[in-house]
Amino acid sequence: MTDTPAIEARRLCAAYHRQPVLTDITLALPAGQWTAIVGPNGAGKSSLLKVVTGSLQPLSGELRILGGSANQQRRAGKIAYMAQQEQMEWDFPVSVRETVMTGRYGLMRQDPWWQRLMPDHWANPAHRRAVEEALEAVDMRDHAAGPIGELSGGQKKRVMLARALAQQADILLLDEPLAGVDPPSERLILDMLERERRAGRTIIMVTHDLPSARRHADQVALINQTLVGMGPPAEMLSDAMLAQLAVGVAPRSTAGGVRAAA
Amino acid sequence: MPLLESLGSDLIEALIGLLMIPIGLLPDSLSAPFEYRFMQRALLTSVLVGAICGLLSSFVVLKRWSLLGDAISHAVLPGVAIAYLLGWPFFIGAFITGALTSLGIGAIERHTRIKSDAAMGLMFTAAFALGIVIISKIASSTHLMHILFGNVLGVQTSALMLTLLAGVIAILAIWLAYRPLLLYTFDPQQAQALGFNIGLIHYGLILLLTLTIVASLETVGIILVVAMLITPGATAHLLTDRFKPMLAIAVLVGIISAVAGLLLSFHLDVASGGAIVLVATALFCLALIAAPKHGLLVRVWRRNRLQE
């Protein structure tokens, strides 16, 4: 039991516009495993990811990433984040390749200063190689030079996944990576994540897709404002547990229907 | 300081000399005005202001900061007035009130139930009113008119030097911090997950915006500078799907508007700020109609083809 957990939260509380979204969350997500986070709409699943990425400041409690301080680990490039598709600006004038390259921006801090001032195609070859490999892995090489605005839903997801893969981070945080995806893209995304887990990476996936959580996750964390339960999928995704999840443990579960504004 | 000043004026001379080369190739009717010294200064100022505004406008448009740009440009007025009172350089005062206002907007937004557009409208009109009150007490109304609406034909060397300095700083900052700025504009959540200091980038960009506004004060004035911070970027956004070309097109639109507006202002004897903004708007309309991919003509044509 000497393994440090990938994410460790102690008595974490967070709010969106004074509306509490996470209350008293204490959990440890093991490194090198696939965790599915399951819960009703507005239960704070995405908020939990946002606390980990730093875009939502917790009101109280403690968060450690791979045993270190959260911001330190973010700066070290340990956290790759794939947001929900609607939260990206698909109108933005960047190409698919440039978008995937932004996954490397954190790691570029370690490059010598003159290399950082170069445009992408003269950047450190390690970055360019990682980007091309990630594009290849999600089968988007053919679209690499085109603008991101012209992609289909499944393609957009694959580009976002490619950006997370290109970062080669220890922890992949994925917010509904399978929502609104056509079956071939879903197959491809799950295959990629399996490959990443075999490579020793930690996968933390918020999902509504219970069949794929059952099939792929090593454990499931049930969340409804607070941690309802955590354990192997067969146990957590039983009818009894899911019924308890819908009710929630926290007394303030009336807020369960309120979707946090993005 | 004297060394810096002489260096600055040498640089200005050199840049004017450089600009006069393409001007010399123009037909006489266009190039004749530039035999005047004040027109040469106005030309260099216009090119610089057009370029910096164009550069910043891409960020303003993509970040949806149009109203914030408007707010900061108005909020600069009391700073200018107070700096004038105390004999400080304009920029110092302008930056302080500009930054205070944007902080105030953020504070109201976070700590009260007032929404951001109301917070901006409230703060910048308050700051602007304060500026008007101070200026009405200390300066003539022509002076006020020049600050509000600009007068590029009357630009002095000291103002030109400030514009030049602002331009150099803006270009250097955007070059050095290109990736953090791009990522913050494109996807702030990703920037956060990669451990970038969002607050630093946010206020750095606001500082650049304030700098640009102050640099454009004498040319287009406080009221119209926001047009130069939106229109070139919006025009460029219609014309390209890539970020660097967008920056380049926005800079080009800014420069063309500024120079053409200057000429119009000279020949027709109309306010320079207004003329510059109208040229920019005309360029925007042209792009709106005829842009190769996002223009109205192409859209209509595409729709008709789909119906067939």
Can you tag this structure with a few keywords?
A: 262 residues, alpha/beta, Rossmann fold, 4-stranded antiparallel beta sheet, 10 helices, B: mainly alpha, ABC transporter involved in vitamin B12 uptake, BtuC
Helix content of chain B: over 70%
Amino- and carboxy-terminal Cα gap of chain A = 38 Å
| CATH topology label of chain A | Rossmann fold
Average predicted confidence as pLDDT of chain A: 90
Overall strand count of chain A: 10
Map the helices and strands:
The complex is a heterodimer of chains A (262) and B (308).
Chain A: E1 7-16, E2 19-29, E3 34-38, H1 45-53, E4 60-65, E5 68-69, H2 70-75, E6 79-82, H3 96-101, H4 113-116, H5 125-137, H6 153-166, E7 171-175, H7 183-198, E8 202-206, H8 210-216, E9 219-224, E10 226-231, H9 233-236, H10 239-247
Helix pairs in contact in A: 5-6, 6-7
Chain B: H1 2-25, H2 28-31, H3 37-63, H4 66-86, H5 90-111, H6 116-138, H7 141-149, H8 157-176, H9 178-186, H10 188-193, H11 198-228, H12 231-239, H13 243-268, H14 272-290, H15 296-307
Helix pairs in contact in B: 1-3, 3-8, 3-11, 3-12, 3-13, 4-5, 4-6, 4-11, 5-6, 5-11, 7-11, 8-11, 11-14, 12-13, 12-14, 13-14
Overall description:
- The complex is a heterodimer of chains A (262) and B (308).
- Chain A is α/β, with parallel strands linked by helices.
- Chain A has helices spanning 45-53, 70-75, 96-101, 113-116, 125-137, 153-166, 183-198, 210-216, 233-236, 239-247, and strands spanning 7-16, 19-29, 34-38, 60-65, 68-69, 79-82, 171-175, 202-206, 219-224, 226-231.
- Chain A contains 10 helices and 10 strands.
- The termini of chain A are far apart.
- Chain B has 15 helices and no strands.
- Chain B has helices spanning 2-25, 28-31, 37-63, 66-86, 90-111, 116-138, 141-149, 157-176, 178-186, 188-193, 198-228, 231-239, 243-268, 272-290, 296-307.
- The model of chain B has no long low-confidence stretch (mean pLDDT 89).
- The A-B interface holds A 50, 53-55, 71-77, 79-81, 83, 87-89, 92-95, 98, 102-103, 105-106, 108, 116-117, 119, 147, 149, 163, 167, 173 and B 62, 175-176, 178-180, 182-183, 185-196, 237, 240-246.
